[in-house]
Design the sequence.
């Protein structure tokens, strides 16, 4: 899809959704992620972005309240400029890792769990495995008999490659493959196609080819392709590392998990739905988004990227705000 010809939504959730006051243990964290995953699946959200929120604010930037939105001051990003100016951090917060892992688990077929998640990450899934599967996702139920299946591209028959008498590493030996693990006794072999190793794909088991999720599952009923999970270190990277082809046409903030300040973003206009757009929802505490912006050299405030707001009841939790805002949005949109 080269242009946005239908309504589609992405949501950005701060890692503070799992802060200690919201989730004191892994079981509670799992339930928060599960509710977000269900809401995203019900409304066919394209991607769920986990935004890492730092615990400390550097002194180099002002700690004052974010300025009100005045006129058309929205910030636009250049990927090249971002790559040059943004300093990359190597460490992800534990909350961000847990949230992203859980969100990914809820859209991963059971037969791929051991292949998708490292043993260290599977430790976070002990409570998630006990929860009901999300039935709006066709590949989570009755996948053994369907024509279309989710699979993981796997290496097989790795050739022995030598360069001037030296063996190359396994990673360099084989970067593409025609073998896909679809949960059967033997891998499926693609016809005249090769895909990158360790990439999740949707395959047509009859024609033995990779297809798009929408081609496979968008045939009515409860056939929805599920969302992509993406980690973002900064506000900037939400927009420069996106999965949406033409970018977001509008960003709306949903101020949630806010138990103290009632007037954040009141100057920002209310969201007006459109028939064909790619909308990004920032769902979380306004101040948490500001804390991330303070670390980002490409923005001065979260206000720089916001076009509109979607109100939810005061002191609504993030997982509840996700469902409320998505419901409001889709109820007022001609899909």
Sequence:
């Amino acid at each position: 899809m080269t242009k946005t010809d239908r309504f589609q939504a992405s949501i950005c959730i701060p890692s503070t959704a799992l802060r200690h006051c919201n989730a004191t243990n892994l079981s509670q964290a799992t339930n928060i992620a599960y509710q977000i995953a269900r809401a995203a699946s019900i409304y066919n959200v394209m991607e769920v972005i986990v935004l890492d929120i730092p615990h400390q604010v550097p002194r180099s930037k002002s700690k004052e309240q974010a300025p009100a939105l005045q006129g058309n001051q929205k910030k636009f990003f250049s990927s090249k400029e971002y790559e040059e100016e943004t300093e990359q951090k190597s460490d992800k917060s534990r909350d961000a890792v847990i949230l992203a892992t859980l969100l990914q688990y809820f859209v991963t077929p059971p037969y791929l769990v051991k292949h998708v998640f490292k043993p260290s990450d599977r430790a976070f899934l002990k409570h998630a495995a006990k929860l009901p599967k999300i039935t709006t996702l066709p590949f989570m139920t009755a996948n053994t008999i369907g024509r279309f299946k989710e699979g993981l591209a796997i290496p097989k028959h790795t050739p022995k490659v030598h360069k001037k008498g030296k063996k190359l590493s396994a990673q360099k030996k084989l970067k593409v493959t025609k073998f896909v693990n679809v949960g059967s006794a033997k891998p499926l072999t693609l016809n005249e196609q090769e895909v990158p190793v360790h990439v999740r794909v949707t395959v047509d088991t009859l024609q033995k080819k990779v297809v798009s999720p929408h081609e496979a599952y968008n045939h009515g009923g409860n056939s929805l392709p599920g969302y992509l999970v993406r980690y973002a270190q900064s506000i900037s990277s939400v927009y420069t590392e996106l999965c949406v082809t033409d970018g977001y046409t509008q960003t709306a903030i949903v101020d949630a998990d806010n138990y103290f300040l009632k007037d954040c973003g009141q100057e920002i206009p209310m969201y007006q739905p459109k028939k064909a757009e790619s909308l990004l929802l920032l769902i979380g505490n306004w101040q948490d988004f500001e804390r991330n912006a303070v670390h980002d050299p490409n923005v001065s405030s979260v206000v720089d990227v916001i076009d509109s707001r979607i109100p939810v009841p005061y002191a609504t939790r993030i997982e509840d705000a996700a469902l409320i805002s998505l419901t409001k949005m889709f109820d007022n949109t001609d899909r």
Notes: Residues 59-72, 79-90 have pLDDT under 50 and may be disordered.
